[in-house]
């Protein structure tokens, strides 16, 4: 007799994801849902949806989600948290959303130590709009707007968000993880759990940056995209906890 080992989290609707093959958003959605179920906070959780590939995440999360203008999810999340302080509120953002048009929002949210959690998905490219250069695009990386590779003389250097936010007094839990292998997926779940716990215990602002594959816009197979993450992304964006209120 077969025994079920895993089941769909209650915090996810029974709806197929629309994401491209090899994309990491579906994994991240499930990890968030698992953590919310584990804490038993589904009825008081509120998400904020971004402009980007995850713009439709309200179709997948089985709790309240508010759609936001591009880059403004931390501001909307802050407003929700301030009027509903007992709610658990999180923003879900890509690198174009958070690190470009929304960089001021996330910096000042961290400076004020708003009691929200930010889930930051970094795939080094604008995904939904066709693969243009993002603030996190690596040097020499080819995109639709850098066909010969990102040139620091013209486009500057890739932005390391965790390192930046970790310098701010208001930032409490800051971590970077990756989805390149099962071990790091489990570490990602643990970091998401700590980020939500930071909010639940009213300690301060928390953010988890998750390095995620984008095979379509990288023009790689899903398998090769995992290899590219290991060889190119992780050396520039080192993994780990940059700031934590928890004992290591």
Would you kindly provide a written description of the structure presented here, covering whatever features stand out?
This protein has 248 residues and is an alpha/beta fold. The chain has a single domain (25-243), classed as 3-Layer(aba) Sandwich (Rossmann fold), CATH 3.40.50. Helices cover 36% and strands 17% of the residues. It has nine helices and seven strands. The chain has helices at residues 25-39, 73-83, 95-101, 103-111, 152-155, 161-165, 182-200, 215-218, 222-236; strands at 45-49, 64-67, 88-94, 117-122, 171-178, 205-211, 240-243. A seven-stranded mixed β-sheet has the order 2-1-3-4-6-5-7, sandwiched between helices. Strand 5 (171-178), helix 7 (182-200) and strand 6 form a beta-alpha-beta unit. Helix 1 (25-39) packs across helix 7 (182-200) and helix 3 (95-101) packs across helix 4. It starts with 24 loop residues before the first helix and ends in a 5-residue tail after the last strand. The model has no long low-confidence stretch (mean pLDDT 95).
What is the name of the CATH topology? Rossmann fold
Order of helices and strands: HEEHEHHEHHEHEHHE
CATH architecture: 3-Layer(aba) Sandwich
Beta-strand residue percentage: 15-25%
Number of distinct helices: 9
Inertia-based shape: globular
By CATH, the superfamily comes out as Thiamin diphosphate (ThDP)-binding fold, Pyr/PP domains
The tally of strands reads 7
Strand ordering within the main sheet = 2-1-3-4-6-5-7
């Amino acid at each position: 007799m077969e025994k079920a080992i895993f089941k769909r989290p209650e915090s996810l609707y029974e709806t197929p994801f629309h994401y491209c093959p090899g994309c990491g958003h579906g994994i991240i959605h499930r990890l968030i849902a698992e953590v919310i179920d584990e804490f038993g906070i589904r009825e008081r959780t509120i998400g904020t949806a971004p402009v980007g590939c995850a713009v439709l995440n309200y179709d997948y999360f089985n709790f309240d989600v508010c759609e936001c203008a591009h880059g403004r999810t931390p501001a909307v999340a802050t407003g929700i948290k301030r009027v509903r302080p007992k709610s658990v509120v999180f923003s879900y953002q890509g690198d174009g959303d958070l690190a470009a048009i929304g960089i001021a929002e996330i910096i000042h949210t961290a400076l004020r130590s708003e009691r929200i959690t930010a889930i930051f998905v970094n795939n080094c490219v604008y995904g939904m709009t066709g693969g243009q250069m993002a603030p996190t695009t690596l040097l020499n990386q080819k995109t639709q707007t850098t066909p010969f590779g990102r040139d620091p003389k013209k486009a500057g250097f890739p932005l390391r968000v965790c390192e930046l936010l970790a310098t701010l007094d208001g930032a409490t839990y800051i971590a970077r993880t990756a989805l390149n292998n099962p071990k790091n997926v489990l570490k990602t779940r643990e970091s998401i759990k700590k980020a939500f716990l930071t909010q639940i215990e009213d300690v301060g602002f928390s953010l988890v940056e998750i390095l995620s594959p984008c095979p379509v816009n990288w023009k790689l197979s899903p398998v090769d995209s995992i290899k590219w993450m290991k060889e190119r992304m992780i050396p520039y964006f080192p993994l780990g906890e940059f700031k934590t209120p928890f004992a290591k």
